[in-house]
Design a protein that fits this description.
- The chain is built from 17 helices and 2 strands.
- It has a two-stranded antiparallel ribbon.
- The protein has 480 residues and is mainly α.
- α1 runs parallel beside α7 and α1 runs antiparallel to α8.
Length: 480
């Protein structure tokens, strides 16, 4: 009995080894929604998006691919809203619960703490059991955790709010790993940077909405609990997105079985594969950790800082801070489109990190201009750097370990966030706090220059428009 799963139109002699094709190739498409692998199409006119190839709703058409992306964006819109909602109502929550700023910082630390190790196993889980089941599990935790946070505010149970943030964090970070895996699966060799930019924009939309909606609720209705409940309701959209993605997976499996076939044996995927990840991958992991350990802690306290320094009301300060995610909301897809067309991923990262220094400097040392300029500049960087960083990872790592690699990255990010949120709570002066951010940015910039130098010495794959992507077997053969 033949075990050859290739389409009849592809001859045995013309099917190259998996993942040996150059990037990008118009004849390469994802073939597994749970495992990352790719199948080569015959050179004829009936490609997935060709005239008359399939009806518009078919899983192999571009419309279905972008519907998958739209559903994946639901994972982050509501969860980002819920994540940032406590920062907008910080003062009201502290007064009601009777807690200090250091205790308030625990609400962010407890979110990040389990995700130091959990995304590592979550990414491995996605590689083994598939993205659809993994997203259902993680997004259920997002919905339940955010509900617990909202309930805890009724009787000011701080311990219960900590439990809710813990569960919320367990689910949210794994769902973000799943988002990145979905982008790599459906858009690799196509519009990868653009798709990741749109996913980033979805999260920034949630952040922008929370800074303005929650401030409006508090100022006009005087009840911060309503803001927390709004966050809980919107966080439930992540679960809705996971359910939709699950059924889209089922549809693709039934209508186009070849799309889901994979030559990668799930049993062959092992956590020990991490030893084959190159040094440059770990440098990029450090850069990403430094970047997010700067941006997110700053964003969590920026409303309070601007209120005190510029003597502004809460709603106006919150609006200024919301310019950061608003900038990223519109500019992330644009930068993603540019990166898809010109590459230069490492160069964009270095330029972006360098531009953060004047953004923080203006906010720290000058009362003029108004903080609008600083927030817009930081927002530009917030758009540019992720649009260049995230698409670099599939170039650096073996394709079948994409979930594991993104999981490790997410764990390291949360380790950094846990540490720097704790440090942030211990620093009494906002000036010293921003000075810490500047030092972190400088460290990230130096590492980004090192990354570009290492990449150039090895042929400039990251900055190349058509990089070479290797499998774990090819990496092992090279090392041996």
């Amino acid at each position: 009995v033949s075990t050859d799963t290739r389409p009849p139109s592809v001859s045995r002699g013309t099917l190259p080894r998996r993942a040996s094709a150059s990037f990008p190739s118009p004849r390469v498409r994802p073939v597994s929604m749970g495992k990352l692998a790719y199948q080569h199409l015959p050179p004829d006119q009936t490609t997935p998006d060709g005239p008359g190839a399939h009806p518009f709703w078919h899983p192999e058409r571009a419309l279905f691919r972008y519907l998958v992306l739209l559903v994946a964006c639901l994972f982050s819109i509501g969860s980002y809203f819920a994540y940032d909602s406590i920062g907008v109502v910080q003062q009201e929550l502290m007064d009601d619960f009777g807690i200090t700023e250091e205790q308030f910082a625990l609400l962010y630390t407890i979110y990040s703490l389990p995700n130091i190790v959990l995304p590592f196993f979550g990414g491995y889980m996605l590689d083994r059991i598939g993205i659809p089941i993994g997203t259902l599990i993680s997004c259920t935790l997002v919905a339940v955790g955010s509900m617990i946070v909202a309930v805890s505010a009724f009787d000011a149970h701080f311990w219960l709010m900590l439990v809710g943030r813990f569960l919320f964090g367990m689910g949210a970070e794994v769902s973000y790993v799943a988002q990145n895996a979905i982008c790599c699966l459906w858009f690799k060799n196509r519009e990868l940077a653009l798709s990741m930019g749109l996913v980033v924009s979805a999260g920034r939309l949630g952040s922008f909405f929370t800074f303005n909606a929650n401030a409006f609720i508090v100022n006009h209705y005087g009840d911060y609990r309503a803001a927390l409940w709004l966050g809980a309701v919107l966080a439930s959209t992540a679960f809705v997105g996971a359910v939709l993605y699950f059924f889209m997976h089922k549809l693709a499996a039934r209508v186009s079985p070849a799309l889901l076939q994979s030559p990668v044996d799930p049993g062959s995927i092992s956590m020990r594969d991490v030893r084959y990840f190159p040094l440059v991958y770990w440098v990029v992991v450090f850069i990403v950790m430094v970047f997010y350990s700067t941006i997110f802690p700053f964003q969590s306290t920026a409303t309070s800082y601007i209120q005190k320094k510029y003597l502004m009301p809460n709603d106006k300060a919150a609006f200024i801070v919301s310019l950061l995610p608003l900038s990223a909301l519109f500019l992330s897809p644009i930068f993603g489109f540019i990166v898809d067309r010109v590459a230069l991923r490492g160069v964009f990262v270095s330029i972006g990190l360098l531009a953060l220094i004047p953004g923080f400097g203006l906010l720290m040392f000058s009362s003029w201009p108004q903080p609008y300029v600083s927030m817009i500049l930081i927002g530009l960087v917030f758009s540019c750097v992720p649009a260049a960083l995230w698409p670099s990872l599939p170039i650096l790592i073996p394709e079948e370990n994409i979930g594991l690699a993104f999981g490790i990255l997410s764990g390291v990010i949360n380790a950094g966030l846990s540490l720097f949120y704790w440090i942030q709570g211990r620093i009494s002066s906002p000036v010293y706090e921003i000075l810490l951010y500047v030092m972190l940015v400088l460290a990230g910039f130096v590492c980004s220059v090192w990354w570009n130098m290492m990449d150039y010495a090895k042929g400039g794959q990251v900055n190349r428009l058509q990089p070479t992507v290797h499998t774990i077997q090819e990496v092992q053969e090279t090392d041996s």
